[in-house]
Here is the input.
Amino acid sequence: MKKILILLVTTFSISVFAQQKDLVWHTDIDKAIEISSNTNKPLFLFFTGSDWCGWCKKLKKAVFDTETFKKWANENVVLFELDYPRRTPQDPEIKKQNQDLQQTFRGLVRGYPTVLIFDIERELQEDGTKSQDKIKIHGQRMGYMPDPHSFINTAKTNLQNRNQ
Here is the structure.
């Protein structure tokens, strides 16, 4: 009886642990686009100033670090973080990529934090080089919200017309 109980507790613990999968925040846009394309999930861009933006830190703690958000995000989106730190050293390639993406979305990002959900269609030319990306933003930009339920409901609203 004791062995059966231990087996059941172990099995339950493993299944709970497997469900609480940590989030993967990508920092390479090409990799994130590839994953988005392969999984048919939209990209979820988080513009942040990780070492100076108080509202970014609050959003991360109040929403992104919760099990509710983790479950939703793992099922629905490909996470991508664009960080613009002031003191923390950053890989020069990531820094350049993020500056370029900041220019791409300059009309939509007016402050931090900003979250955009979109699909991107990347077509390759005959020689294998990429052509102009086609970006389709879903809904409005999002910022700080105090809880994961409000945030997820807004994200769901933004995604309602995605496949139409």
Remarks:
- The radius of gyration is 18 Å.
- The longest helix spans residues 2-19.
- The chain is about 45% helix and 15% strand.
- The helical segments are 2-19, 29-39, 54-64, 67-76, 92-104, 148-159.
